[in-house]
Amino acid sequence: MLIAGSSAAVTPLYRLYQESLHLTPFWITIVFASYVASLLAALLTVGGLSDYVGRRPVILAALLLNAAAMILFAEAADVAQLILARAVQGLCVGVGTTALGAAILDTNRARGPLLNSVTPFLGMTAGSLGAATLITFAPDPLHRVYDVLLGLTAVMIALLWVMPESISRKTGALASLRPHVSVPTQSRSVLAKLTPANVAAWALGGLYLSLMPTVVATAMAVHSPWVGGVVVSALMLTAAVAVATFRDWPARRLILTGTSTLSLGVAVSMFGIHEQQVAALLAGTVIAGVGFGSTFSGTLRTLLPTAEPHQRAGLLSAFYVQSYLAFSLPAVAAGLSVPLIGLSTAAYLYGAVIVVLAIISMVASLFTNR
Hints:
- The protein is 81% helix and 0% strand.
- It is globular and about 55 Å long.
- The chain has 16 helices and no strands.
- The two termini are 35 Å apart.
- The protein is mostly helical and 370 residues long.
């Protein structure tokens, strides 16, 4: 939760960075994209390293990277330093996600999958809401947010020393660093059918974590950073609740529910932006969050069983490559388009594409046999 929360805590601060460093929406999305690129690189190289060297060393490396990122953020004085800090944070998340997830599964096989699904969403909720709170009520938020997170990281490093190692070391660590991405033959048609829904869900997350605070402040003329933080938190919290609440539903039902609520929620959110109604934006965000969590859960539960055990790591890598590209590339495209068509229009087009992709996937699921 700390690592996920640290990654989301930057989002409410983007508006302050725009003002203090004179950044355009394009540069905000570039900062966000640098985080995703380094995260993806880490996932594809060191994602399986903890299977060979143990969970604790890799978790320690992730926490040290998080500490370094917090220091870099606190000292950032221009966009280049901000990009560097975000890239280091991406490495932290990429290194830590798989090791922490595996450690949770090692400890509790029964509850591990559910904890791994909801923990990132809960962490991002706490991070964005906590940062928005400090921005609103604490002095010097561009330093105070990172001071708090650095202190929590130090506590986690101390607690790591009393955490037992859950696996034994084995040879093959260097070979595991070679990226392995593959889609088994029997999984390709399933992945193709799921792609519109998966892209829609992750593109929505990218919109909220990169541009939504700027949209709230600029297009809706709501300058309180608290509101932008609450909007982002609402998406992540409802996604976590959806994953936990619908955990016993069949995968097809999750996909249908996810794509329908995703498209409806985005449409309501865009209406709220157009009418400058924060209540409508929040209502749409909550509906879309249900769709985000349901689609994420249903996609994984549909896709992973199609692969043999020895094929799942490669398939999961391919899934995350697709997901994080959808997470970042549309946001960068939106940032590029803002000087040409304006922030509001860029948001509307972004939302329209998400709605179309979700509807395509929903229709495809309706005509797919159980």
